[in-house]
From TrEMBL:
Entry-linked PANTHER family: PHYTANOYL-COA DIOXYGENASE (PTHR31630:SF7), PHYTANOYL-COA DIOXYGENASE-RELATED-RELATED (PTHR31630)
Chain spans, region Disordered: 297-318
A Pfam family matched in the record: PhyH
InterPro entries: Phytyl_CoA_dOase-like
Coiled coil: none
Composition bias, Polar residues: 299-308
Compositionally skewed regions (Basic and acidic residues) per UniProt: 309-318
Source organism of the structure: Thyridium curvatum
The protein, known as: Phytanoyl-CoA dioxygenase
Length: 341
């Protein structure tokens, strides 16, 4: 597919990207910061309170469904919902580009957290999924545990900070993220100890590793505890991609809704990465597809959707409400950083 190269206009700021500066390295050499970054260093995850005002977060939570009403449990039915996989992810329909999803990504408190961690405003963002954990799943596939890390075991070190913005009250029984506290710090030791001694769980990408029973036992023996992360509407949760994690189903009457938001410095992406991001966004065509959590678009998705093995009765390549991006949000697509040929 041919792509048109786009360069930053005169208002987009300098493309002389900052060097590493004082960005966090997560390798034991970082100083004490006196804020959530210390939690991230110690535990492998952190909760950034009030990244979005609570009233605005609750408004974002109402933006889903065909005939779904989150105040009516009887509408938690496939006929009333987009295709939601067993992990609660909405991956198709251009949903990752809905205007409210881009609004969440563009929130100053969300972008600002990653600017602080990486010490740069020159960031790109993933086109990642919406996650909806329903309190009433009787008509939907069950969510079973899938402990994993989202990083190639053969490429150790801090490479990616994942994130999600929580949009509904999320207590101990409301489903959502569970993390293995401190697992990031022993990740390299873990993989060195276990490599070649187990039958790996099949993965569609090297940037995913699933923990077997043997791996889970290793984590327990090395003193790691699994923690259910709790958050209020508007809180941002971040975690090192080496930290073992998964999501758990809702046990209460409270739905769980989150928008995955992951940023990385443009300096960490190649020009080929940025061109892939442009193709995924396709500002000049009808396509709006997603990526994984990797902002440099290591993998891109599709909007072709099936329901019960047949094409879904809803097929959509663009979101219901296409975003109108601010200058700041457009830079997050990575497109303005593509060099002219």
């Amino acid at each position: 597919m041919a792509t048109e190269t786009i360069t930053a206009d005169s208002t987009a700021g300098s493309l002389n990207l900052k060097a590493r500066g004082s960005r966090m390295l997560m390798d034991g050499t970082d100083p004490k910061f006196g804020d959530w970054r210390d939690d991230l260093l110690r535990d492998g995850y952190a909760v950034i309170k009030g990244a979005i005002p609570e009233d605005r977060a609750l408004q974002y939570a109402d933006k889903i469904g065909l005939g779904y009403d989150r105040n009516d449990p009887e509408t938690v039915h496939p006929d009333k919902l987009p295709i939601v996989n067993e992990k609660g992810m909405i991956l198709n329909y251009g949903a990752c580009h809905e205007d409210f999803v881009w609004a969440v990504r563009s929130e100053p408190g969300v972008v600002g957290a990653f600017e602080k961690l990486y010490d740069t405003e020159d960031l790109i963002v993933s086109f990642d999924a919406i996650n909806y954990g329903f309190a009433n799943r009787k008509n939907l596939p069950p969510n079973t545990p899938w402990p994993h890390q989202d990083q190639d075991p053969d490429r150790p070190g801090f490479r990616c900070l994942q994130g999600l913005v929580n949009l509904l009250p999320n207590g101990p029984n409301d489903g959502g993220l569970i993390v293995c506290r401190g697992g990031h710090a022993t990740s390299e030791q873990f993989h060195n100890d276990i490599r070649g001694t187990e039958e790996r769980i099949p993965a569609w990408t090297k940037e995913w590793y699933g923990y077997t029973d043997k791996g889970m036992k290793w984590l327990e023996e090395h003193g790691h505890e699994w923690i259910k992360v709790e958050a209020a509407p508007g809180d941002l949760i971040v975690w090192d991609s080496r930290t073992p994690h998964y999501n758990v189903p809702v046990k209460s009457k409270q739905d769980r809704m989150a928008i995955y938001t992951c940023f990385m410095p443009v300096a960490d992406a190649s020009q080929e990465d940025l061109i892939r991001k442009k193709i995924a966004f396709e500002i000049y065509s009808l396509a709006r597809v997603g990526t994984t959590h990797w902002p440099n678009a290591l993998h891109t998705g599709t909007n072709k959707t099936t329901r019960n093995g047949k094409p879904d009765f809803v097929q959509r390549d663009r979101p219901l409400n296409d975003p109108v991006l601010s200058e700041r949000a457009f830079k997050l697509t990575g497109i303005p950083y593509i060099r002219a040929q």
